[in-house]
User: Fold this.
Amino acid sequence: MSHYSKLENRLNYTFENKQLIIEALTHKSYKKPYNNERLEFLGDAVLDLIVGEYLFTKFEKSDEGILSKIRASLVNERGFTMIARAINLGEYIYISAAEENNNGRDKPSLLSNAFEAVIGAIYLEAGLEKARQISIALIEECHPKIDLDSLSKDFKTALQELTQATHGITPTYELLDSSGPDHKKEFVIAVTLDGKTIAKAKGRSKKDAQQKAAQIALKELKK
Amino acid sequence: MSHYSKLENRLNYTFENKQLIIEALTHKSYKKPYNNERLEFLGDAVLDLIVGEYLFTKFEKSDEGILSKIRASLVNERGFTMIARAINLGEYIYISAAEENNNGRDKPSLLSNAFEAVIGAIYLEAGLEKARQISIALIEECHPKIDLDSLSKDFKTALQELTQATHGITPTYELLDSSGPDHKKEFVIAVTLDGKTIAKAKGRSKKDAQQKAAQIALKELKK
Assistant:
């Protein structure tokens, strides 16, 4: 049994051309005459179309602004790393010893790129329908609730992405107060950025208060 | 014969579902319960994949950085507007009277979006292969020489895109000098941005000198 047979089982797809899966799993650090970057280029476009069409069909009434937003929340390094981890892709990739010591098998960029490359390889060998079937199954497994609300409500993630892009730092959340009886507790959370409080909010749970504070912070920062 | 039959002939594709082509041709200004924005969202991803795969296959030895660069030079508003004009798409789009008076039928954004929507509609009805066949024929017709050299050599366009993005202005080219006998003329061109010279170059023709100056300017601005 080859090294990657278990991966093929998990994907529910067996490559005819084994060179394709080997290439998809080969990180450039491995110093072979090939690596997975070209397949990643292809897979990226395949996934963009597959997810775009999936949303186009699922949300018949949503305009293209909403569709783009939801797609961006699924088709990104974080989303693909999640899928790569779910299929243990890190176990199967070929990387250099140096990359290995550098925790390469668990690096988001490496995992996400390898996932795109694997989908690119399936597309090349078996076509769009097969690639669609496999990637939609994995996306639905990792995002059990793809809907407008749950995707657009993740304000903490949106805030983190914004502050990392604009300030190069991650916001922190601080519990300022909790009060009330157990069945009706209230939490007050502050979001701070680089030591400065940018928003506060109350909520029924810490998570709820954090999301609300992140939402207010997002508005503030976008002003 | 319907309004858009000539367009169907030009595309070499006849829609079964006429509502699809009507939707693809309807600009949002036309105030119908539908418009071409959702199809444009889909067509954009379809074209990204089609052109990506075309380049992946055509340039077997090129790494993904080069492929991305060439794709970006083909898949953009300018490129799609060129194709839209070649098929006279502006004649067939449905726009409001106000947009009509505003020269809407010749607006790059409107033409480019309508082209993407038409490809999205063909993809939906007839699948990826048909969409590929039609769009590659049009792309090859409008870009007779898709190769690394001729695409990457268009430094003037790259410079203009950069300065518009970063400074909101377009560079200008000035002939500083021309010398030598007719069969061996030499031209000196300066690129200026907002009145300030950012690069100079010599060339065998004005066009050649402009390209060289643009290339130097690009390097300067990217520093």
